[in-house]
TrEMBL record, chains A, B:
Reactions the enzyme catalyzes: chorismate = prephenate
Protein name, per record: Chorismate mutase
Lineage of the organism: Eukaryota, Viridiplantae, Streptophyta, Embryophyta, Tracheophyta
Localization terms from the record: Cytoplasm
Alphabetically ordered keywords of this record: Amino-acid biosynthesis, Aromatic amino acid biosynthesis, Cytoplasm, Isomerase
NCBIfam families: CM_pl-yst
Coiled-coil ranges per UniProt: none
UniProt organism field: Cinchona calisaya
Family annotation (InterPro entries): Chorismate_II_sf, Chorismate_mutase_AroQ_euk, CM_AroQ_sf_eucaryotic, CM_II_prokaryot
UniProt-recorded Gene Ontology molecular function terms: chorismate mutase activity
Main location: cytoplasm
Amino acid sequence: MAGSDPFSLESIRNSLIRQEDTIIFSLIERAKYPLNPQLYDSRCSIFPGIAGSLLENFVKETEAIQAKFGRYQSPEENPFFPDNLPDSLVPPQSHPQVLHPGAASININKTIWDIYINKLLPLFASEGHDENYMCISACDLECLQALSRRIHYGKFVAEVKFKDAPEEYSPAIHAKDRDALMKLLTFESVEEMVKKRVEKKAKVFGQEVTLNNDDCNGKFKIDPSVLPRLYGEWVMPLTKHVEVEYLLRRLD
Amino acid sequence: MAGSDPFSLESIRNSLIRQEDTIIFSLIERAKYPLNPQLYDSRCSIFPGIAGSLLENFVKETEAIQAKFGRYQSPEENPFFPDNLPDSLVPPQSHPQVLHPGAASININKTIWDIYINKLLPLFASEGHDENYMCISACDLECLQALSRRIHYGKFVAEVKFKDAPEEYSPAIHAKDRDALMKLLTFESVEEMVKKRVEKKAKVFGQEVTLNNDDCNGKFKIDPSVLPRLYGEWVMPLTKHVEVEYLLRRLD
């Protein structure tokens, strides 16, 4: 893709497809460990002196460091705990100004956090706890950041779609008609294809690779059927939600 | 493996095999970005007010947080910057005391850091820079921690091998004969098999999965031949180095 416009519809589609791999890798890594519900429980007494859940504290502190090193200068990145983040020590990078400034006010990470902890994790993490709190928190952060990046990429998707056909979107934007915008952004056959692809990827990346056999006896590191559910119930609807929010601000 | 002894030779072998996947996933993620040599240059003037390279600073600060959340209570984890790490806020976990106490003094992360930055990265990261410093630093940390965990796992390998046949290792330990120990720990046919397996894994996990075709046209996200080199030249020799160091302390 060297030399091509990184914000063409094709480049953006390629990025979304590549981000599927990142999401699946991170879920496979998290699936190594059991659920460890204490990690997510803000009333958990095994972490004395820590208010809020252990994961919450870990993510807050890690995001503060990542902010210092410039993570949130990128319009592709959205923090889970945006309040009181320190300034970046790294001078502003030359991110091309692609998005409408209204994009900065769209952050649905609270919803993503809630879905990840309460709906997605119980689908694939085995019950129980092994006290590997730190390794699991690091895996959770990877998963959360990968999902957040993918879903908020809807801002770029919406910008490219709008630029390609402003006349198609402008009436619904002016009318603040969310339903009409959602309809314009929904392509069921594409969504079905994405769901099939992520399931196939989970099978390929989650197989146990050995030198002897080329089939994996149906054993996968993460149940492949979790992926089409994740995409069908949450990733794609939330991406479109971000797209709608972006379009509603696009003509401000 | 539920219920089985996590420190049997078989469990340890299974862990080493599973860690191959983690290492390959993390390298594939790093390969998304070009090299960005500024990130590793301690004299780089684009980060005013920061002494040391950006990656060094990022890893130091992240390790400090991870220490607070208990990472280095686990005998499987070794910090890259062990000086002045804060105490853990999390109460001591019930890690079984498997290793000889001498294990704690073995930390070859300086060597691993040097090899990763100066030898491994140039083998697979494309030239150039894209200023994605923070995302790359996070990928580098994943790679470094995965390699460090794998290589220092040699402590557990050595312990199990010693316990299985103390009479085989004790004379060389008493004689402080590193060469003899290295010979006892080297199984060339096994090493060849590992190299073949990690190359195959890189092909499987690094392919572009699409719904239409099941071959990947020879396009991989990371050159699969990097993996047998990584394992043959660095991972396996360094693991054996850790094993020798551990055995030399085993009878103290």
